[in-house]
Write a structure and sequence with these properties.
The structure holds two protein chains of two kinds. By secondary structure, chain A is mainly alpha-helical. Chain A has a domain at 40-74. In chain A, 54% of the residues lie in helices and 7% in strands. Chain A contains three helices and two strands; from the N terminus they run αβααβ. Chain A has helices at residues 14-28, 41-52, 59-71, and strands at 36-38, 72-73. Chain B has a single domain, classed as 3-Layer(aba) Sandwich (Aminopeptidase). Chain B contains five helices and seven strands, in the order E-H-E-E-H-E-H-E-H-E-E-H. A seven-stranded mixed sheet of chain B has the order 1-2-3-4-5-7-6, sandwiched between helices. The radius of gyration of chain B is 16 Å and the shape is globular. Classes of the chains: A mainly alpha, B alpha+beta. At the A-B interface, helix 1, strand 1, helix 2, helix 3 and strand 2 of A face strand 1, helix 1, strand 3, strand 4 and helix 3 of B.
């Protein structure tokens, strides 16, 4: 009579679980959380000009604010 | 009616899927820790009829702008180290995408920025777009890409403040 031999179940080792957690944390950190933004001289000039002469809100932004006012509690 | 509130343990983070694994993982594993430690704050958009379901979220943090090569004459206009607020992440759950909720989150982020601006200053809101598609999305609302990194965009504080006049600040 032939005996059915079961393959050993694959068990997740602690090392495999740790590796998965590390990969998840790395993915979560993929977006920058740096607290400083380094900018070039041309960007500094651009930002400075925008601060001195802030553009008026455009039509799309005004529409977004109107929608917000109508549907989101402040 | 919908509401924007700080992410808490009561929100269904595991049920959130925006289609981007790094953003899902951030919301699930990192956002609350960062909030507790003061690294950043994550806010969620919820519907009052289903308060645990996260429609979308955004994350804000303080940032410092460093520009080392500014000539002294120009440094009077923009000092070498100035502060702003960074919108690092913004995402909408897959089932709620393409319904305008991203706009609500963006205005919500601006509203939070105004609160910071009124209390402590800040030159404006910086946005990290994840790709060129996202960059074009922010450009629609007037954000200006930086020339050294066009996935980083900026909108000055006064533009935001003028835009939000009339909305109660947090």
């Amino acid at each position: 009579m032939a005996l059915a031999i079961e393959e050993p179940r694959k068990r997740k080792t602690n090392a495999a679980i740790t590796t998965r957690k590390v990969v998840k944390v790395q993915k979560a950190a993929a977006f920058s959380d740096k607290s400083s933004i380094r900018i070039s001289l041309s960007d500094a000039r651009k930002i400075s000009a925008l601060i001195e002469n802030p553009p008026k809100p455009n039509k799309r932004l005004k529409e977004a604010v109107m929608r917000f006012k109508g549907s989101v509690c402040a | 009616m919908r509401r924007i509130e700080l992410l808490t343990i009561d929100h269904d983070r595991k049920g959130f899927n925006c289609g981007s694994e790094p953003l899902n993982a951030f919301l699930n594993q990192t956002a609350r820790q960062h909030s507790d430690r003061g690294i950043s704050r994550t806010f969620v958009l919820i519907d009052e009829m289903s308060e645990k379901t996260i429609i979308g979220f955004f994350t804000l943090s303080l940032c410092e702008l460093k520009s080392e090569n500014i000539p002294p004459a120009e440094a009077r206009k923009l000092p070498r180290d100035v502060s702003g607020v960074r919108l690092g992440r913004l995402a909408v759950a897959f089932q709620f995408q393409r319904q305008g909720f991203g706009m609500e989150l963006l205005v919500g982020a601006m509203q939070k920025f105004v609160g910071v601006f009124q209390a402590a200053g800040g030159i404006g809101l910086f946005v990290d777009a994840k790709d060129s598609h996202a960059r074009r999305y922010y450009e629609q609302f007037g954000f200006v890409p930086l020339s050294s990194n066009d996935l980083q965009l900026f909108l000055p504080a006064l533009t935001i403040q003028r835009t939000l006049t009339g909305i109660t600040n947090p």
